[in-house]
Amino acid sequence: MELADLYRDVILDHNRNPRNFGPLAGASADVEGFNPLCGDRLKLHLRLVGERVEDIRFEGQGCAISTASASLMTESVRGRTRAEALALFERVHALLTDDAAEVDESLGKLAALSGVREFPARVKCASLCWHTLASALKAPAPQSLAAVSTE
Amino acid sequence: MSDTARAARAAAKTPAPFDVEAIRREFPVLARSVHGHRLAYLDNGASSQSPNAVIDAVDDYVRRHHSNIHRGVHALSQEATSLYEDSRDRLVRFINAASRSEIVLLRGTTEAVNLVAQSYARPLLRAGDEILITHLEHHANIVPWQMVCAQTGAKLVVAPIDARGEVDAAAVEALMSPRTRLLACAHVSNALGTVLPVARLVASARARGIATLIDGAQAIAHMPVDVRALGCDFYAFSGHKMFAPTGIGVLYGREELLERMPPWQGGGDMIRTVSFAGTTYNALPHKFEAGTPNIGGTVGLGAAVGYLESLDLPAAHAHESALLAHAHAALGAIPGLSVIGTARDKAALVSFVVDGVHPHDLGTILDGDGIAVRTGHHCAMPVMEFFRVPATARASFAFYNTFGEIDRLAASVERARRLFGRGGG
């Protein structure tokens, strides 16, 4: 177990300076994610135009892992189609939970999240925003979704 | 336990200077390392570690005496029964209950509160009646009352805390109304460490004919508890916070009240006779102990009581107070660190937050240094809301902790602050 592997520079940077943080005017979906174990709450704002994630921002208060994961997620799914974003969700989910999942360059900065899988107690911190995104993208009417819970 | 062992235990009661290293040698887990560092176990408020006396008693029970109790005429069943009931006797003495009838063995504090809610309060409550609690209660002393209120139409009334995390007795008294049927409050707050003015609150409640339940989970291992001097109707605590195994705990109830209460679960052991025409119930305390109980856990709890009685408890408690003062000083020197819960009368735990460092990241960094603390909302979400924090880190001490462990805690917190802090600090 290496702490430096969990708290890589990319994670620390996105925690200190989260990207795409704040409300989103004209959002087509505002979905809440909740981790009842730690009390962390996250709000994800999405503007979907057709099949495309035109814009995405987030708000909330969480640990460094959850803040950085959400910040990295907004950067990597903005401009992607619904199908591409869901495929990315599957890859990140595998990255966080499956020791055999490969970390390749196509993941870009998201590869920084691979250190989390060595810390089982922290996997939900990193996956909360991704589950929230996936629920929003899979829901027929995301605006009326109940809060997404990690439990 | 044999007479010679009992005599040895009595002899061991002779006070000696408090030797923390000698105490630590009795707790095998304290010698282990975590992530390459010697374990600093500062999560005693969640669950405390067991000394050899407890481990050996449980081991001996399983290896030599295990059987079901109150049933067989064979030797093992009789031995198991006497070990089980001997633990109850020790508990009677330990908290100064009036008799064995007043010690109900349950899974823990949570089950004890639920029993009182369902068996004492529910038949008594009418719509508009009130249950009085405080703002700093653990969820286990909130939710069972919300459930019984929903069942009966009674109302939950919550007494305030102040910015220190103290409960002002006068403010609680002001909320005692002619409709108040029960006051349920913590002896010590698990999230803040506040010691509540329970003696005064119980006396005020009694004077108004209000029944009282004290959640003693965080108090029982850290201060003397004398239920009859306190005068409460119910007192609940858990074994695993007083160096015994998990899954065993105690509801003390005044016999007069327990006698009037209906059974809470039906099954074996709680009956006298059963026929399809009807059933008569067993005498106290067995009326509330349906089914085969946690015999091994009870044996462990009895051994934990024996262990505690063998110590110089005033010296142990004084050591805990010194640990608390040292922790306040060491943590207080860290820039950006705020202690949550600064009651003047406080048990040996410190809840805190650090600017720019989320408690869960702090918990992970501390764990990397071999230091175990609790991070989260501590099953006291209303307390977190009151102090406007999502969570805190909590270091909670037992008499086996050392000043050196607290210094390691402070150094590790400082390292985390530098790692996460904006501008590097």
Architecture of the largest domain in chain B, CATH level 2? 3-Layer(aba) Sandwich
The biggest beta sheet of chain B reads: 7 strands, mixed
Sketch the topology of chain A as an H/E string, one letter per element. Answer: HHEEEHHHE
What is the gyration radius of chain A calculated from CA atoms? 14 Å
Indicate the proportion of strand residues of chain B. Answer: 15-25%
CATH topology of chain A: Sufe protein. Chain: A
Describe this structure in words.
The complex is a heterodimer of chains A (151) and B (425). By secondary structure, chain A is an alpha+beta fold. Chain A has a single domain (3-149), classed as Alpha-Beta Complex (Sufe protein. Chain: A), CATH 3.90.1010.10. Chain A has helices at 3-6, 9-16, 64-77, 82-97, 123-138; strands at residues 29-35, 40-49, 52-61, 148-149. A 4-stranded mixed sheet of chain A has the order 3-2-1-4, with helices on one face. In chain A, a hairpin with a 2-residue loop joins strand 2 and strand 3 (52-61). In chain A, helix 2 (9-16) packs across helix 3 and helix 4 (82-97) runs antiparallel to helix 5 (123-138). The relative contact order of chain A is 0.22. By secondary structure, chain B is of the alpha/beta class. Chain B folds into 2 domains: 21-51 and 312-420, Alpha-Beta Complex (Aspartate Aminotransferase, domain 1), CATH 3.90.1150.10; 62-309, 3-Layer(aba) Sandwich (Aspartate Aminotransferase, domain 2), CATH 3.40.640.10. Helix content of chain B is 40%, strand content 17%. Chain B has 15 helices and 17 strands. In chain B, the strands form 5 sheets. In chain B, strands 4-10-9-8-7-5-6 form a 7-stranded mixed sheet, with helices on both faces. In chain B, strands 13-14-17-16 form a 4-stranded antiparallel sheet, with helices on one face. Chain B has a two-stranded antiparallel ribbon with strand order 1-2. In chain B, helix 4 crosses helix 11 (295-310). The longest helix of chain B is centred in the first third of the chain and has 21 residues, at 75-95. Chain B starts with a helix and ends in a 5-residue tail after the last helix. At the A-B interface, helix 2 and helix 3 of A face helix 13 of B.
